[in-house]
Amino acid sequence: SSGKSSFLLCRKLAQKEGRFPGMEPAGEVLRLNTVTTQPGTTAQTSSDARRTRRRRIRAEVDTVLADLDGVLTTPQALTCGLSRGQISRKVKNGSWEHYARGVYLSRQHAFTDAALVRAVVGAHRGVADRTSAAWWHGMIDALRRPLTVCVPVNSHRPPELPHEVVLLHRSLPAEDLTEERGLPVTAPALTVLGTLATLEKDASAFLDRVLQRKLVTVADLTAALERNKGMHVLRPARDLLATLVAGAESEAERLFAELLKLHEITGWIQQYRFGGRPIDFAWPAERVSVEINGW
Fold it and tell me: Fewer CB atoms < 10 Å away: N or C end of the chain?
């Protein structure tokens, strides 16, 4: 059929020029070149490619939503390959719910505490800090309300959300920022300090627990305090840390002295001064010293 079509086309061209195949002037030959193609091949290939791309994008979006507790921001959706028009259609057809500007919730996923934290942090374009960060790091068992988020000092007017949020306007050092399971969050040391400043009670127990679990060290906390020395909200944490460290060291030193007596170890001097500073326990004759730390 394609050959017949080519012949008819050439016949029309010849008619336009006033001649027909087989009736060419002497010495002139009209050459016909025909190309046979399979009808619909190019269109079929293009359609298959579009379907393959849609399946790939759908799989990518499903994977990201599963990893991010059903919460997706506009940049994340665009990275998956969706267009802004496709995002709008998902909201219109009920697949997604618009939570805040640039933040969407998948209706196929439960709105859990983790989804709440992701949505609120994404809406403010900030980082989870204080008690919200402590919960995200696994330092406390239950997510406390209101949520706590840190935003840059030059951030614009906060969005109106259905959930209460306490904002801290502060530009944080890079060392005190991290990402956990795809969420921007304060690093463990600053998280502990911020939580200590927020807790009205049980702050001492919280500090002792995170130190015992080795989630942070005293050195980590001290360094974070130094980096954020101008953050007035951390003043209660600074005072509490100094008090607890001193008390813990005193208690540890008392227990160590009792052990020395129990095992009849002699020759030691407590708070022996050497090089202008005191040493917790020293055996001057043996030239041995022992320093006691609280954790």
Answer: N
Q: Is the peptide bond before 146 cis (omega within 30 degrees of 0)?
A: yes
The whole-angstrom separation of Cα 100 and Cα 83 is 18
**Strand 103-106 vs strand 71-73: parallel, antiparallel, or unpaired?**
antiparallel
Measured between alpha carbons, how far is residue 12 from residues 2, 5, 8, 16 in Å?
16, 11, 6, 6
pLDDT tens digit sequence for 33-55: 555 555 556 767 888 888 999 99
Identify the weakest region by mean pLDDT among 12-16, 153-157, 253-257. Answer: 12-16
Contacts of 247 (CB under 8 A, 6+ apart): 294
d(C-alpha 101, C-alpha 158), whole Å: 11
Please report which confidence band the pLDDT of residue 30 belongs to, taking 50, 70 and 90 as the band edges.
very low
What strands lie across the sheet with 277-283, from one edge to the other?
Answer: 269-274, 277-283, 288-290
Return the minimum-mean-pLDDT range out of 33-42, 86-95, 245-254.
33-42
Assigned token pair, 159: 């969005």
